[in-house]
Write a structure and sequence with these properties.
With 312 residues, this protein is of the alpha+beta class. The protein folds into four domains: 54 residues, Arc Repressor Mutant, subunit A (Orthogonal Bundle); 51 residues; 85 residues, Roll (SH3 type barrels), CATH 2.30.30; 79 residues, 2-Layer Sandwich (Alpha-Beta Plaits), CATH 3.30.70. 37% of the residues lie in helices and 24% in strands. The radius of gyration is 28 Å and the shape is elongated.
Length: 312
């Protein structure tokens, strides 16, 4: 970019002068010029009389990124997927980032953005409405590594409890935002759903996030968000109707699928909790049978009996 600015200003930079200015070797500058001319297609020439490089024609923008039509489409898909952040503090920086990226694209592909709008879309069910003020507070606390205080209501409780935490990670899972933080009173990393938080406030107490903290490790044993720490081997048999639908997706990194002669499949998972897989199993109705563990079989049987009572 410094070379580009110098070339546009007609200062006739050469490898020696620019190398001294940027504190690199002249060979590095020569490689950069070759890249700009040969790979980016910029109209660069050398004036042997005045010992400097120059643009042979006007250059309005710097083509910092070369992409194919497929890559542009992938970028568009990503932009559509990020639409769920509309109205959050991330919306403005994301818009700015996409604008900068697209402004730097080299114009070497031709297709209609309107066509992509017509053929690619995303739709999420059960999106949780976010409190934007609370979301901004929590995101600031995570980014700045500052302790926060708030009131929290557990899923099975009717009262709010005061919490003081060190926020480590903010994640969106299954269309809902969760805060992963160390609860200072309980001395454990806990998971908090943002819709169940209220009256949040930043403190002046900073902290250093542990070097061994890893959100991937925390979520490794969960089917969604929560994990009890104890590993359960889950084996489920799906009938031929559901087998193809289940096999088409990756539900968990531990999953193994075995096909049976009658068209059904056995899905095996290693999970750290049963609560979330219970809800997922019930969503398949009579198309799934729990083989193990026995505790999960009992939970599904009791839930099915309770559902049956509602319709008798």
């Amino acid at each position: 970019m410094r070379l580009h600015a110098a070339l546009k200003s007609h200062h006739l930079p050469n490898c020696q002068t620019i190398a001294r200015e940027l504190e690199v070797s002249p060979k590095t500058i020569q490689r950069d010029i070759d890249f700009m001319r040969d790979r980016l297609g910029l109209p660069i020439d050398y004036d042997a009389k005045r010992f400097g490089f120059y643009y042979t024609e006007a250059v309005t923008g710097f083509p910092s990124i070369e992409v194919s039509e497929g890559e542009i489409t992938a970028l568009f898909v990503a932009q559509k997927a990020l639409a769920q952040y509309k109205g959050t503090p991330f919306e403005r920086p994301l818009r700015s980032a996409f604008r900068k990226i697209t402004d730097g694209l080299k114009d070497r592909v031709s297709f209609s953005w309107t066509d992509l709008e017509d053929v690619i879309s995303f739709r999420s069910a059960g999106v949780s409405p976010a409190d934007l003020e609370l979301f901004e507070l929590v995101s600031k606390a995570v980014l700045r590594s500052v302790e926060i205080e708030f009131e929290y209501r557990k899923l099975k409780s009717n009262v709010y409890e005061a919490r003081r935490v060190r926020p480590y990670h903010l994640g969106c899972l299954e269309n809902q935002w969760y805060l992963f933080a160390e609860d200072l009173d309980r001395r454990q990393v806990r998971t908090f759903a943002l819709p169940r938080m209220r009256k949040g406030s930043l403190t002046t107490r900073g902290f250093r996030r542990p070097a061994d903290f890893s959100i991937s490790k925390i979520l490794r044993g969960s089917f969604g968000v929560f994990s009890s720490g104890k590993t359960h081997r889950i084996r489920l048999q799906f009938d031929s109707y559901a087998a193809r639908l289940v096999a088409e997706r990756t539900w968990h990194e531990s999953q193994r699928i075995r096909s049976l002669p009658d068209g059904s499949i056995i899905l095996q998972l290693e999970l750290g909790g049963l609560e979330e897989i219970e809800r997922w199993i019930l969503s398949w109705g009579s198309h799934v049978h729990v083989i193990e563990p026995a505790a999960l079989r009992a939970v599904i049987r009791d839930a099915a009996a309770s559902i049956l009572k509602l319709y008798q």
